[in-house]
Amino acid sequence: MKFARVPLDEAEGAVNVHSLKLPGLDLRKGTRLDAALVRALAGHGLVEIVVARAEPGDVAEDVAAARVAAAVAGAGAQPEAAFTGRANIRARCAGLVRVDRAGIDALNAVDEAVTLATLPEFRPVQAGEMIATVKIIPFAVAGAVMAAVEARLAECPPLVEVAPFRLSRVAVISTWLPGLPEKVIAKTLRVTAARLDGAGAAICHEERVAHTAEGVRHGFDRARAAGAELAIVFGASAIADRRDVIPAGLEAAGGVIEHFGMPVDPGNLLLTGRLGAMPVLGAPGCARSPKENGFDWVLRRLLAGIPVTRADIVSMGVGGLLMEIPSRPQPREGAASHAGPTAAIVLAAGRGTRMPGAHKLTVPLDGEPMVRRVALSALASQARPVIVVTGHDAARVRGALADLPVHVVHNPGYADGLSSSIRVGLGAVPPEAPAVAILLGDMPKVSAGLIDRLVAALQGHPGAVAAAPASEGRRGNPVVWARRMFAALSALTGDVGARHLLAENTEAVIDVEVGDDAAFVDVDTLEELQALELHRIAETARVDARPALDGMEAEDA
């Protein structure tokens, strides 16, 4: 193409180079100037204009774009008609984008006049979605350049394809330990079903098994019997080693472990394997969340029938730092900005519907309102301030806390559920607090010592997001949460706590082993209250009797 500023009377047949907006005339870049347009421009007083004229052998921009697009589009890719030097390429079907990176680099290096841009490789797309675009930058491509481009394209296979999703039947096996709430598993299934739906797949078999190698083995046997084409295992506890429960169960079923771990965060603790022709994924804890993580990268490829080798996984490190996650400490959350003590929140807004005829939180236990006992434990710990969130029958709760140095905040939306009270309580936490202990007002056996142990555990692990009491594989309350989790806690909705956040970030949760049931006993009914009082009376009697028994034993000796 030859560009020049020419007298207007010499412009007919040339291409306009710069867009012009004139009264009653909108002349776009790339418009071929005919006699009528030349007269209209003259009528506006123009005497010259910048134009481009094709030289011998030049290929017009739309023709060039169409030819390049046709050459680069492979299986599952459909070029559209070219316009203004651009030819878009769209997906014919749902699947994953496949690209030849070296071939695209070589094409783009031929000449600056011809460009090809694509979506990243392995990006999931739906039918009709644009996956690539060819753009011719000048108004025409020199014949020699076009010949060089087409010679380069002849040397390589199509550069852009869509690998359609092929697998549609997926088994989900969840291992179970005491303390793992059913709602965590239910949410995991909903999240997984949504992930699969985008690929045209569905859960064809789902079951819970014991968190043992034998339980996992039987789960795989039933998954194969159900005709599953892919199996996913969610562990009640994260996979820690190739010899852990889930990989051991896979090998016991006759399968093989292909790779454990990946340089993608979140997603580090992913296991890949195979049971015959069926791919197997041991899911990391982050796969319980709908947010994209390394699990998605591997799952999508497998659903498209693309093998995922060890080499594929180890190459994912560049770009593998996916998002801000709570377990990744941020500089702005260092000790200097949050140097105060850990705060405590006592949730005391509930209606206690399972204890009709009484206000649960203020019923006496050993002569003292239950919520007061919880607040006293918090005050006896190192946590400060102690924040109590009221809701239902707030005046009665305030009365039970009279003369205690606690900060009471009211949750007018307490009927919306537990999450709303957590949000109100967090709003009262001082900005200098590095963490918060969240206590339930109906757990009167929790002691100051337990709270302090949890606070110390979290302080001793700067990368942790929470510390929770644990016994025999189950987690109890209270939980001490690092400040980096406040946003996730505030985003909770409905009458649910934060248990699923522990499951999603399980690698960054510190389990503090406890030897009694204080972290697991809550009081919902009058029968439970009476049983707790009887237990305390028996314990007191045992302690009172101990000196006398010791004396009798001494006399016998």
UniProtKB/TrEMBL annotation:
Gene3D superfamilies: MoaB/Mog-like domain, Spore Coat Polysaccharide Biosynthesis Protein SpsA, Chain A. Keywords: Magnesium, Transferase. The keyword Magnesium applies. Residues 344-505 form the MobA-like NTP transferase domain. The keyword Cytoplasm does not apply. Pfam families: NTP_transf_3. GO terms for molecular function: transferase activity. This is NTP transferase domain-containing protein. It comes from Ancylobacter oerskovii.
